[in-house]
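User: ok so my PI wants both of these folded by tonight, can you help

Assistant: No problem, let's get them done. Here's the first:
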Amino acid sequence: MKIVLTGFMGTGKTSVGKEISRKLGYRFIDTDVLIEKREGRAISVIFKENGEDYFRKLEEAVIEVVSKEMNVVIATGGGVIKNRKNVKNLRREGIIIWLKASPEIILKRIMTEGGKRPLLEVEEPLNEVNKLLNERMGLYKQGDTSFDTDYITSEEAAEEIIEKLGLDSETVSVSLGERSYEIIIGSKTIQKLGLRIKELRPSKVAVISNETIFPLYKDALLDSLREYDIVPEVFLIPDGEEYKDSRWVNHLHGELLKARVDRSSVLIALGGGVVGDITGFVASTYMRGIRFVQVPTTLLAQVDSSVGGKTGVNHPLGKNMIGTFYQPSLVMIDIDTLKTLPQREFCAGMAEVIKYGVIADKNFFDFLVKNRDNIVSHGDSIVHIIKRSCEIKADVVSKDEREAGLRAILNFGHTVGHAVETVTEYKQYLHGEAVAIGMFAAAKLAVRAGMFDQEGVDVIREIIRLYDLPVDMPDDLAVDDIMSAMEIDKKVKAGRLSFILPDSIGRVKIVEDVDRDLIKEVIGMISG
């Protein structure tokens, strides 16, 4: 992101900016220093020889250039805010922070620094400071937020700003060129959402959630938005996978139209995978695409569905058969939401976490085995498992956004899992539970295909059971029904049914045109 510091001279823009840059690893840019380098002379000399109007033109040209950079901290001259074009450029994908200080402190700092300030070379500098502050007060209020630097050090001010932006949390980047975005992972990130939403400069904001989740986080979310004068529309859908369908998409489209939500608006998905998937699909199709932000509240959504840009709804004949690839603008993961998550849902989320260990990282898989108690009790390991899961998915998605090849490995366990969900009409199993059954089935299928060993199957069965997840199907599910559901899966190409199968813990292969008799045999083995 881009952090812009504005304010009167002597408020600490340079010192605070350097501290923020050091802590975040961002590049630091001081516009006054840049102007002096370009001109080859001090600002005081420019003022004296060419006047303020000339200087402001130089300043505008510099701002236009530096405002295009990202992952930077920009300390601006005190008068930058006077120019509307400067403000417009600096606001583009950036946060403007107004640093404030009392006139007496400002003058003391300037005198201590010993530098020449052209605007204060007058008989009564304190009076001039007061005068200029009063003149610019309305302009400084154009900032997105403010910080008083009177009695805190530059380091303390930098820490406060970083915390306010949520940048003190763990961050994972999804690199997709112009569609790149950040995943923020930490505690109380919902309370920090308002400033990040303001960064997107929305004309209107709408929150989409469900009747169970919204009451739990309503106050934290709305307070955070209102702090930055954002009063959102709120649309709730019923809670449950069975409501992730085209009827509710149509309902939400209608509500957005009635609320006059336009193409510059932003949707916020607050909830689990159902809310995230349907909000993403609505965002991708409403007015041919508007921005949306994911605020996932379940473990499964935090490590999987909120990341990567897959959106969609279910059809009676198949899960997620209607959807789009459409990336969010931001993902804000608040680990505190997991405290209100029922244990069954938490364990269901662990199925997707286990998946990442099997497909990409044996050390991570081993970590999940060794730290089970700490994880299920929501200990210190929680942030690590969420971050590592997001890192693995972000890496895969960055290399193959639209599942042309590599991204298919993220479907490990999902071929059978989706079929189980479809046959049971999304009512008997949570998504993660169905995926757990699917992972076990895939492991056994890999053995029957001669590419995996029984020891590996046993290890996968052990970790699935370790997190209280199922490995077998009930015997009342007919093998033929499961096969029929798989035939309609998105992974079927030209009649060939592909599977993601492990050849070791930490590595999988995409196997196309798997023998159907072999699949039936394995499904029969895990039934009952």
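One down. Here's the second:
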Amino acid sequence: MNILALSSFKLNPAAVLLADGKVKAGIEDQKLLRSRTRGMPITAIENCLESSHLSWTDLDCIAVASKPLQGWRRRSWTRAKQSAFSLLANAYYEADDSGVAAQQLNHIRRLRKRVSSADKVITLDHHLCHASSAFYCSPYEKALILTLDEEGDGRSGTLSVGDGNKIRVLETIAFPNSIGWVYTLVTDLIGFRPHEEEHKTQWLSLEGEPEHKGIFLKLLRSSDGVMPSLDFSFFTRGLAGGLPFSAKFYKQLGLPTAPEEITQDQKKAIAASLQAAVTEIIADLVTSFAKREGLKNICLGGGIFQNALLVADLEKRLNNFSVFVPPAPGNTGTALGAALWVWHEKGNPRADIASHVFWGPSFRSQDIKDVLDNCKARYAISVTDERKLETTVHLLTSGKIVGWYQGATEFGPRALGNRSVLASPWGGYVKENLNDYIKHREWFRPFALAVPEEDCAKYFQASTLCEHMNSLGWEHPDNKVLPEGLAFAGGRVRLQIVKQASNPLFWRLLKQFGEHAPAPILVNTSFNLFGEPLVVNPRDAVRSYFCSGLDAMVIGNFVLAKAGLSQLQTKPGTISSRSPVNA
């Protein structure tokens, strides 16, 4: 059975191709188009079909992780209630939302025209797809499922029970009682771009004290129960305006009403307070429902749970429960969730879906060589994987920052060892060089560290959620090997646990590097230019390499170094230099 599944037509749409219960392909549209997108992920669809050698006629089902008409009705009813005394704002948002819903319905109409039977195209509730991705990727036979995001089909969250291959919804959280929406508003308030830089709010929270936590608890949970319920006295009438916080909000937090006048210390306190309040509300919510249902396993899905700091704190608070977050908990992951829901609704058994997420495009050596020759780039060729690893280890131990481009592209928000920028943690000024000359990012954002699964417990205390960087680890108190600055906030670290079975080449690189360094640990950050998605094809990689401060790049079996290829010779015969054919 061939199932093509699409995420909702919001920001960063994605497509996944599931064939007989196994993921054959999956990619986000923005990675292919090199810019933020919304709407029908047609480029991602074409890539999935082409890489799976299928056509539209080969598809048994197309599942879309959204019900646009149902979502519009729910939002329209909410606006009518909230904006009864703000008719102009209501009319503006209603007209805008109606246009978006019409576009989404047109996307579905176009899909139905591409297949032999319109019945092959089905629409699914957005949060049901979040729940499906969270539960069916988990190792649990039965679990409580919590989904939270800004808004999907008029809802901001659900609580469900997953049992075998079925999901039963317990409660829903209607928009605008949305933790995700408030998180986005605060992101905008403190000077970051909403819907893009919520992760910066997360990391900035580590720099402040949660002195306003009580106010945010009141704002996010106005009732006596455990469900999120906004106190609308903190918002303007009709929830209208660029930042719809009311005078009460600014007064209680002691803030100037002009966002540009908020000081850096105030921003840190706001971020810390929001993060602490959100953590407490979610922990209370999960604990209450898990006890009520008699469950010990928790699955978390939705964009809120891309917040690795939140997940790590929840793991500590929920230490009597087992917690799971899928590899792509945000909107991208609803494509996978939609496919899995269709597959399991047919009564098919569970399978190990998330053993790895290298589902995107991969390229042959000839494809890479053609790009390098066309760019008139000078390169060396590593004859075997062993020689390629020797060369890469030599570069890393020499303090070089290396673009590492191997195999298929990762699905989801994080670079997991196939489209990565790597550096030795013990290299001179590694954080400064990565921040200033390559990533161009804020000083308070930590870099991730990759470590082989077998060595993790020697250096870190971490859960299995670190395999996809969905949580944080802690330095082992009795074996601290990291140089100052790579651990943060009480010994926390962003951590990727690398399994030999899921990424054998990257695992071997870590092991081999560990033979020449204090530990088999590398700094791993995403391979992309500032403001761009992860690189996908060889041309993306070459452009990013030459336009950034990278010292070298290992792309397939080809090695490039800006300091000159002669410096790559580690021992006679290790690599052979070759000029491009067209040079």
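Confidence is low (pLDDT under 50) at residues 570-583. Residues 264-293 form the longest helix (30 residues). Good luck tonight!
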